[in-house]
Specification:
The protein is α/β, with parallel strands linked by helices and 330 residues long. It contains 10 helices and 12 strands. α1 crosses α7 (228-240), α2 (70-76) packs across α4 (99-120) and α8 crosses α10 (311-325). The chain binds nicotinamide-adenine-dinucleotide.
């Protein structure tokens, strides 16, 4: 990943900073001498893990707090140059079982955060982690930013609202916000305990434990994947660009792969393993989005962002990490 000296000595707040993407971002920023504060609630079912910042305890201020705390957030945004807003409930299935928790975190709290910035720190630059989930089942492929939004689950609806609050606060109040619609992201520090964050997590755990990978559906669903360093690089580039104010960008990859081929690739990289294709569990089928891959030409043209790491190299690097540290993630 390239260096970002512009962030040296800058004050940075990362919500969800003990999670998968947030901790990778926090480490990169601390490495260039930024003053990083992370806010994370460490709710056990979510992706936060103190081990994600192991070795950085003296360089990153870790604040165990909940973004649902309006007054806490009003305090924390003050004096910050940048906010990377990544805290979220990420499980699609959990959002169907507990829709109000998802509403509070992914929707209502986003308004707290934006109101706090508007009142106490209107000069802050904000990057919001949105998701391809808000497109729902694609009407056409590849999906560009103009595709109609018709999410298939409660999480998608709340993330859509969270995203649009950010854009609204740019349009109406001139806050410097932008949103990146992430596709499937993987890499070191992802949650592998279960499939709450992504099915790839549990595939990695199963491979390492010598258990069979389950591919749900017919295995022919096509997806695109980004290695986490490519995603954090996009976030940093978006934060630095004036052009990104009020903008929404898809992330994506030129490599598209169906799930069966992905399982085979992972087994090849790992050197052994088995997979089976089984029907969707009943609760998953209605919220599945089928094939998805992004058209990410907007961010490529505007910010000159491109993903660098091939899927095979990214999977190898990810597996290496978990060979060493899997016990910290079980
Ligand atoms: N990983 C992906 O493939 C992916 C894809 C699309 C979008 N995203 C978005 O990127 C963001 C980061 O995702 P991630 O993959 O790193 O997931 P993650 O679960 O590892 O990180 C989210 C973090 O937010 C924290 N959090 C949740 N609720 C909180 C609350 N109420 N207060 C404070 N902290 C809270 C969690 O503890 C966790 O550490 C999320 O907003 C997610 O919707 C991720």
């Amino acid at each position: 990943m390239r260096d970002f000296p512009d962030f040296t000595n800058k004050s940075i707040l990362i919500t969800g900073g003990l999670g998968f993407i947030g901790s990778n971002l926090a480490r990169s920023l601390a490495d260039v001498g930024a003053r990083v504060t992370v806010v994370d609630s460490l709710i056990p079912e979510y992706g936060g893990n103190l081990f994600n910042l192991r070795g950085y305890e003296n360089r990153v201020r870790i604040n165990i707090a909940d973004i649902r705390d309006e007054f806490g957030m009003a305090y924390l945004v003050q004096g910050q140059d940048y906010l990377f807003n990544l805290a979220g409930q990420t499980s699609h299935l959990d959002s169907m079982k507990n829709p109000f928790v998802d509403l509070d975190i992914n929707c209502r709290s986003q308004l707290f955060i934006l109101e706090a910035c508007r009142k106490h720190n209107p000069a802050i630059r904000i990057v919001y982690a949105s998701t391809r989930q808000i497109y729902g089942r694609p009407d056409f492929l590849p999906v560009h930013e103009g595709h109609v939004l018709h999410p298939t689950d409660v999480n998608g609806i709340n993330k859509m609202a969270g995203e649009w609050y950010h854009i609204l606060y740019s349009n109406v109040y001139g806050l410097r916000t932008c949103a990146l619609r992430l596709t499937n992201t993987y890499g070191p520090r992802m949650r592998v305990k279960d499939a709450r964050q992504t099915f790839l997590g549990i595939w990695i755990k199963n491979l390492i434990k010598g258990e069979r990978i389950e591919v749900w559906g017919d295995g022919l669903q096509v997806r695109d994947f980004n290695f986490v360093d490519d995603v954090t690089e996009a976030m940093l580039m978006a934060a630095l660009s004036k052009q990104s104010n009020g903008q929404i960008y898809n992330l994506g990859s030129p490599e598209r792969v169906n799930l069966k081929d992905l399982a085979e690739l992972m087994i090849k990289v790992h050197g052994k393993g088995e997979y089976e294709v089984i029907p969707f569990p009943e609760d998953r089928r209605p919220i599945d989005i089928g094939d998805y891959y992004a058209d990410y030409s907007k961010i490529r043209t505007a910010l000159n962002w491109n993903p660098h790491l091939s899927l095979e190299a990214g999977l190898a690097g990810t597996l290496q990490y978990y060979y060493q540290f899997i016990r910290e993630y079980l």
